[in-house]
Amino acid sequence: MGLTREQEALLPSEEDIAFYREHGWYRSPPILSNVMLDAAAIGIARHFAGERDWILPPTSGFSTWKPGDGDSLRNAEVVALQNAEVRALALHPILGAIAARLTGSPTIRYFADTVVDKPAQLPEKESVVGWHTDRSYWGTCTSDSLLTMWIPFQDCTVEMGPLLYIDGSHLWSGTEDMRTFRCRELQELERKFPDRGSIVRVPMTLRRGELSVHHCRLIHGSGPNTSGAPRLALAVHLQDVSNRYRRHLNDQGVPWHIFLDDLAPTCADGTPDYTDPIVFPALWDQPSMR
Description:
Layout: H1 5-8, H2 14-23, E1 25-27, H3 34-48, E2 74-77, H4 84-90, H5 93-103, E3 107-118, E4 129-132, E5 147-152, E6 163-166, H6 188-192, E7 201-203, E8 212-215, E9 220-222, E10 231-240, H7 260-263, E11 282-285
Helix pairs in contact: 3-4
């Protein structure tokens, strides 16, 4: 899990770590090579064409765009557990090293991933991703330090509908149930938080090879792709060393369930094991930090 000296020089500084903890997001310098991104893009194309390197035991419960679904916002989850090229990118040690720096965790494990492809020809509103927090979907997790790496496969302009971060919103209250990924009304945020005054939106207009990181409680979404070109990105969700399964009830008192619980083997007490090295492999492990 080692890095080269050149890679280590690109990791977040102490100032970057302080910024992340205050603002809830981080933008990297160019750290991913064209070779790595090209290979992962080929893997995504194979996946969308229906090819699988590994077949998951559950066949439903997660997003998986198929050729017969037509031209729409293409969304596919846990692709790294089904495709070799995407796995090589999603589990790259430098992602784990960045996450370890930002969270202070000696071990960083894979949790899930999501491919989002915004074709150029979509009607504007159909390529909008609504405001949400990742934490609101992960009620069964004990940790509040999970984070997401967002990796675009091309230079991402404002017109492409890049990820939008609501600066500092990981520290807000009232975001626990923001499961509005499919809501396309991006003005809804001001109505939900009228007391917040000026809400700062930060577009991740990244260059190819850069990535952004956001805290699991940070509100984020993305606007429409009006560029005339497709916009492809991979989100890699990572967990820190402390994360475990917990029983969580929704507003109706029903136990919360995520599809990852069907993938994970069980612990001795019968609960899903989020530390399993097969389903949730480690990207980074530094025993000296423990």
